[in-house]
Prior knowledge:
Elements: E1 2-9, H1 15-27, E2 30-37, H2 53-87, E3 93-95, H3 102-109, E4 114-118, H4 133-141, E5 146-149, E6 158-163, H5 167-179, E7 188-192, H6 204-212, E8 218-222, H7 227-237, E9 241-246, H8 259-268, E10 273-276
Parallel strand pairs: 1-2, 1-4, 2-3, 4-5, 6-7, 6-9, 7-8, 9-10
Antiparallel strand pairs: 5-10
Helix pairs in contact: 3-4, 7-8
Amino acid sequence: MKKIIAAVDAFSFTEDELRSYKYLANTARGELTVLFLENLFEERFSAASGRSSVEDATYDAMFAQVLETRQLTADKNKKRLIEFYRDNGDDVNVHVPRNASATECIAESRLADLLLVRNTTTLGWLHDTNPPKFVKDLLAEAECPVMVVPEVVQHIREIIFTYNGTLSSSYAIRQFSQVFDDLSEVPVEVVYVEEGDDKTLPSGDLLKDYLQHHYDRVTYRNLVGTPSAELQLIAIHHKNAVMTFGAYGRSSLSRFFHRSDADSILRTADIPLFITHL
């Protein structure tokens, strides 16, 4: 049984989100462990110069009260999460990392088969970028595949493999096929992102042979125009699909697999995105 971990913000999650994580873990025939991230905002704000000792004491008391309130909220939300899964008959592990950070999740990913994270997870009080820095940090540094998901994940009815002939795009296809090894009957479309003027599918015979061992129905499409824009349209219009990408933020050669292009997909896609790197 595979180990599937899901990074959940203790202060911002929904039942639909929890249901999506369990669906994906079940689809992968894995056991779900929720990383319940309690970002209590423990670091104090820097004191303003010239603040008196009385002001310091008042500030400390107020800050302690805020932390106490947030801890009570986190405890209540953890109970709600556990009860949600229990009431639905789901067996789920809940782990509270010592530090609620991307670094802690990355460490957990070293011995996991898949890391799930919602596309809006920030772990912060302040307005964040889109996609959030927390999500981008996981994508760039996680040591297992990452699946970025919307709040509601539809049942997977189509698999879209993006491919440009590089090792990273091939690796993403193989990793997905190994993690989700029970989807042989789901239709697959391989979207070839042309590099330069070469319209021939790189290692085409090897790719087709590999996919024939894993899937019953596979079709192929060559992208024309701007690859990132075309893939963005595919992600928008295919509602019951999952899409794979390779080498988030690490490729300097591909016309598509640049971080800026991947971020555009992350901002607009309402389907799970399976992203990995070597």
